[in-house]
């Protein structure tokens, strides 16, 4: 009987890194009297996930430090700001903030597959690219 060597499974690999920033916001389009129409602040948690092939020698997609380097300019635009003042974030819901971040992060040789934004410990929004 013929025996074949076990096939190596084809794996999809993702790496993630979490970031935090502090910011104020108000939601301008909520109904009158909604608490979020008032200016208030959050300690935001953002998780960035990328997917790509492994560098055969280094054994990683990119250095985790590359995620931090890519996040840094966005952190500078968001941290200790009023989000409503940031171009493109006039209505800074978690959903629109996650999309804003998604549109601004690129990695050579890898693609962003998930951005998760948590305003509080119990509320978060995740965006993914639509299926090709
Ligand atoms: N789908 C969304 N709903 C809400 C958003 C949002 O971005 N997307 N944002 C808010 C406000 O920013 C609010 O500050 C957060 O609301 P909430 O999760 O209710 O936070 P609390 O800590 O105040 O929760 P309580 O359970 O009321 O204490 C609202 N909704
Ligand atoms: Zn809020």
UniProtKB/TrEMBL annotation:
Its cofactor is Zn(2+). InterPro entries: 6-PTP_synth/QueD, 6-PTP_synth/QueD_sf. The keyword Cell membrane does not apply. Its EC number is 4.-.-.-. Keywords: Lyase, Metal-binding, Queuosine biosynthesis, Zinc. Binds 1 zinc ion per subunit. Pathway: Purine metabolism; 7-cyano-7-deazaguanine biosynthesis. The active site is at 36 (proton acceptor), 80 (charge relay system), 119 (charge relay system). The keyword Cell cycle does not apply. GO terms for molecular function: 6-carboxytetrahydropterin synthase activity; metal ion binding. Transmembrane segments: none annotated. GO terms for biological process: tRNA queuosine(34) biosynthetic process. It catalyses: 7,8-dihydroneopterin 3'-triphosphate + H2O = 6-carboxy-5,6,7,8-tetrahydropterin + triphosphate + acetaldehyde + 2 H(+). It holds the Pfam family PTPS. Zn(2+) binds at residues 25, 40, 42. NCBIfam families: queuosine_QueD. Belongs to the PTPS family. QueD subfamily. PANTHER family: 6-PYRUVOYL TETRAHYDROBIOPTERIN SYNTHASE (PTHR12589:SF7), PYRUVOYL TETRAHYDROBIOPTERIN SYNTHASE (PTHR12589). This is 6-carboxy-5,6,7,8-tetrahydropterin synthase. It comes from Pyxidicoccus fallax. The gene is queD.
């Amino acid at each position: 009987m013929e025996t074949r060597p076990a096939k190596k499974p084809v794996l999809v690999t993702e790496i993630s890194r979490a970031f935090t920033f502090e910011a104020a916001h108000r939601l301008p389009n909520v109904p009158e009297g909604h608490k979020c129409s008032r200016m208030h602040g959050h300690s935001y948690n953002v998780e960035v996930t990328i997917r790509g092939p492994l560098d055969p020698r280094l054994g990683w997609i990119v250095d985790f430090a590359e995620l931090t380097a890519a996040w840094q300019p966005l952190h500078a635009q968001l941290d200790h700001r009023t989000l409503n003042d940031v171009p493109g974030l006039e209505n800074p819901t978690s959903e629109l903030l996650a999309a804003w971040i998604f549109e601004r992060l690129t990695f050579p040789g890898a693609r962003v597959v998930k951005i998760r934004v948590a305003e509080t410990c119990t509320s978060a929004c995740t965006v993914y690219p639509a299926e090709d």
